[in-house]
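Practice set, problem 2.
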Amino acid sequence: MAPSSNYTLIALLVAFAVVAPSLQHQSAAARDGGVAKLVTAPAPSANGEVVVLHPTASYEIPDLPLPRIIPCPPLFPKIPFIPCYNVAPPPPPPPPRPKECWTTLVKSLVPPCSGFLTNNGGACESEAPSRKCCDGVKLFLSGDRSVYDPLCLCHVMNGDVSQLLPAAVNHTCALALVQACLDGVNPQPFSDLCNNDQSIKDEMPPMDLPEPPPPATGNTA
């Protein structure tokens, strides 16, 4: 190639490098202006009325056709083009269970249900338990799980609660109490689980916390 041709090619390249950014800027401005006009400019309708297009229209960038194998960042905006899957937060830990049943039985069940459970005067044979008694029983299923444990009712089924009553629990009355107060709970299978299922016995909180061992006494000379 002749020297003059080389000079001409170099001059064209330099001119293009100088002019290209301004052309790109003008093109972007024209494009943005055109988009703005398309978005904000009123469009005439068929009956001559002016229809204003929504200027706040938004568009989502589609993801690449890839499998969702990475979790979406929980605290940051989603990465464009990269498919991801939402990660559900872990469930909260269950509340701590009560360590004994004495407190809740004395507070909620014994005072209003004592006469019914011991069949005092034929109470459980002639009438239903009082509303206050049933409300106390229901707390063991619907109350705060850190305070009320459903398995504390097993101490009613197995007779342990007798130590809190003026007389021994009448087992027939205990079954009648569950049937009257707890909808959907079959009293006899519930009693069988409390009395015969070892796994239930292992999970059942005790009536009262065991007494701490006596302090060790040192040898005296």
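Problem 2, part (b): a different protein.
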Amino acid sequence: MRRLGCPDPFLSYIRDLYSRSSTMIEQNGESTPIFTRRGVKQGDPLSPFMFDAVIDWAFSSLDDHVGFSFGHVRVNNLGYADDVALLSDTRAGLRSQLGKFESHLAKGGLTISAGTEGKSSSLSIVVDGKAKQWVVNQTLFLATNKGIVPSLSASGEYRYLGIMLGSGGAKKELSGLSRKTLGRRLVTDKQSLAQAWAACLYTKLDGRGLSEARSCAEGSRWVSNPPRNQSGGNYIGAIKARGGLLHSKVHSARGDSGRDLLLSGLAGYKVLVEPRIVGHTLGVRKPDLVLWNESRAYVADVTVTSDQVGGVKAHRDKVAYYDQPEIQEWVERFTGLSNISFSTVAANWRGVLSPLSANFLKSVLKLSNWDISLLGLRICKETYHIHRYFGRSTYSVRGRGPS
């Protein structure tokens, strides 16, 4: 990493970070530290840069005079992460390049997957200019410390980055990659691909809020060029907010085909989650659930209140909030049923459930007493997590721990 310009203090930090890195495995109540001697830390944002630095250093060892010419450009390698292809116009040149590349990889703790169980292959094509023909030389000529590199036959193929390659070139699917459509836009190069992705993004629910970002580009420069005094945690959190990646009930429901989600199998009821009901006098109201079967429909909502508010009162107040003629008409139009009831699941933040709510859960949704117990536990767990989060956030603001 020094060759890439990383300062010595940063290199010392990385050296200390990895030299003291260990993990623990507990067995029969005993555990001993296991020091990691190879690889990089999974999930660490620094890991891909460290891996790229090693691969780039290994590529730098290759001879620039050995390779394959494409017009006026000589290419001796292709690399995408750990998928590498070495190129040469002679078998001897390829053998030499492989030796240099493997030697540098070994110094970085990396090996080439070869041998009978490996993932490497070679292809040697010999061209006879006078006879105007070419043949595939299947003689083995490459070896690594892990074993022999198999040679492809004239009919053999190797998958590289999802594309089948062989002596006849890439399969026909490759030609189709040059002209693709994305969101009804023709994609022929990187620029048109970027434009097509941008156009598709702005049509999506998460992307609509970014549709005017291009009109004020200076407001987006921090994404690719964050200020140096910005902490990593805050930057990642800001990126999540920018991309609409923060957890919400909307995102949780999306994996099940959208916000207004039709389900079946809940005690024999069909379920609509959080419908948006617009009334002429009530405005917008969004109950958590609308449930119905062949004979009856229910409108239900969930509320968690202070422990100073009675559960029965909270239940009745929430029922009165939704038991309105306009909502009844909307539910009747949607379900085709006129027999409509209103209920709620009301509890305080200490996990105490209203008896009216408990009766609804057991008689209508067929929840067991154990289910009701787990619901109280879930409420208390969420209360605990909220309290912890509030305590941490107020500590940094007030400069002292929460009282």
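Answer key, part (b): The domain at 258-391 is CATH 3.40.1350 (Trna Endonuclease; Chain: A, domain 1). The longest helix spans residues 369-398.
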